[in-house]
Amino acid sequence: SKTSGNFISRATALAKPEEGYVADIVLYCVKAYHNDSACDVIAPAVGPETTVLTLQNGIGSGDFLSNRFGEERVLLGAAYIEASRGTPGITEEHGGSCRIALGEKHGMISQRTKTVSELLKSSNIDHEISGDIMSALWKKLVFITALSGMTCLARARFEQVLDNPQTYKLAIQVMSETKAVADAEGIGLPANIVETTMDDFMSHKSELVSSMHQDLLSGRPLEVNVINGAVSQM
């Protein structure tokens, strides 16, 4: 880990929750193409007071989980980290900002949001409570539609995408389209978000890694339906 140094985390992995176990909080971090099977696994552990904090990429995770477990149990979040899977059991974190933003869909600062915040704080996880989590999710979507979409389209590292004038221009067009859809949906994004995001890209282009691009190269399913596909469907 470039941010925290190398360390070992000894976690207990289970195929399913133990019988009778009910979780206080579920961190929902699976790929979108595993949603149905993942929900089947966690369903027995989701009780009346359980909070499911989704940290999935893209748009629509909150609605999917609300339909399955009820909106009163779902908290929206965005994870910001540049990481990749190495050999089995090894995760590589590549630097940059490592943090979580979380909040209620409708903007209020609820008690359960504060409770989750205290848990993250006690675990030394950098985070912030957002009073406008939908804007945070769409701001991240502007970022990943270019990063993930363009690396997959070009079959190239993002640094190569940005160094090529044609794909550089296309990345700007992808972000501009996402911004236009956000505007149409009533999401409050900064007017200059395309420019500031591209500035960020250019400052860190050698560090940026797309998990969807890694999935493509490894022959795994893609999350395109909740990222670039979600924008085109609106």
UniProtKB/TrEMBL annotation:
Pfam families: ApbA, ApbA_C. Residues 11-104 form the Ketopantoate reductase N-terminal domain. Signal peptide: none annotated. Residues 132-233 form the Ketopantoate reductase C-terminal domain. GO terms for cellular component: cytoplasm. Keywords: NADP, Oxidoreductase. This is 2-dehydropantoate 2-reductase. It comes from marine metagenome. The lineage of its organism: unclassified sequences, metagenomes, ecological metagenomes.
